[in-house]
Amino acid sequence: MATAFIPGIALAKNTNNAAEPSFPGLIIREKEPVNFEFPFPMLSSAITPNNQFFIRTHFPIPKLQAKEWKMTIGGHVNKEITLTYDELRALPAKKVMATLECAGNGRANLAPKVKGLLWEQGAVGNAEWTGVPLSVLLEKAGVKPGTVEIILEGADKGEVSEEPKSPGAIHFARSLPLTKAMQAEVVIAYQMNGKELSPEHGYPVRAIIPGWYGMASVKWLTKIVAVDKPFEGYWQTLEYAYWKRTDDQPTLTAVTEVQVKAEIARPALSEVVPAGKKYRVHGAAWCGENEVAKVEVSFDEGITWQSAKLLGKSVRFAWRLWEYNWQVPTGQQRRKLMSRATDSNGNTQPMQHDKDRRTYMVNKIVTVEVEVQ
């Protein structure tokens, strides 16, 4: 298999003695605060290794210690409770496999250039998370009738100096409806792929909200607050919000559920593909509350589509790997490859980005151009 030159990526030999890229690290999108991207062409397994999982932060990473960490559960509850790290770890644990995707993943594919971090493909990853179901904690506190949302607040704090500016220093906080908060797979996690969370991924404790974009999975969690009216915080209404139209009247609405998407890992952009031979086109597909029903690939700019093979078993909230054995045409030429996914509810990736989504929920079909030689 021929391999494109990708800066910073070394070549290694696989079991078939074919050259494969090997890159154990991450791509820098921003150093302060830390924002690093998974090199998506390196996709090789359903589980993303911890050292390759993308990192998204808005402010400096809080310096927290498990022995000093505490979390309060209060607000519209019968009894406010405070848990230490050891007390949380003593509660019955649940393992959940879930794909997290930044709401701005794919933003680099929008034209003209937009504001915000220019993620390409890799602000996404799949991991197994271990923690305590949020529903268990809410039941311990006793959520009062009339509660509509649960606010999750992290220890990270800072001032947003770019538009829209924040009113001074603020914590990162997001809310979710009580019905979502009580979902069995929503956990307050302390482990990632069987290891303690790293500081970059929310140590000592973070939320995992499967099926929703990553901003909902608040890291460095210290507060859980039940409220009897919708939360209208900065990260709920100004950022991580899109235009939703009712009777053609647009109103800003919080970004929530992940949109269906398939991405090609290999071949990578500008990769040289051997003419006249078989090539394994592969990637991953994911969605929100539904499941991936099918993935298709096109080699003629979307005129015709071929069904790809879904790999492994379907796991709700986790991405699905896929592949297609492409008979590469003969002769030197350029080819444009596309992939698209359809979920179990019939939703399919669009060709164009909906401008009402602003710079979020980017799931448009992306072209990967390769060199056939």
Shape descriptor reads globular
**Helical content band:** under 10%
SSE sequence, one letter per element: EEEEEEEHEEHEEHEEEEHEEEEEEEEEEE
Amino- and carboxy-terminal Cα gap? 12 Å
What is the tally of beta strands? 26
Give the structural class.
mainly beta
Total helices: the number is 4
Mean pLDDT: 93
Unreliable sequence segments: 1-20
In which order are the strands of the major sheet placed? 7-6-15-10-11
Strand content: 35-45%
* Main sheet attributes: strand count, strand direction, barrel closure: 5 strands, mixed
Report the C-alpha radius of gyration, rounded: 21 Å
Structure, explained:
The protein contains four helices and 26 strands. The protein is mostly beta strands and 373 residues long. The chain has a five-stranded mixed sheet with strand order 7-6-15-10-11. Strands 8, 9, 12, 13 and 14 form a five-stranded antiparallel sheet that branches. The longest helix is centred in the middle third of the chain and has 8 residues, at 134-141. Helix content is 6%, strand content 39%.
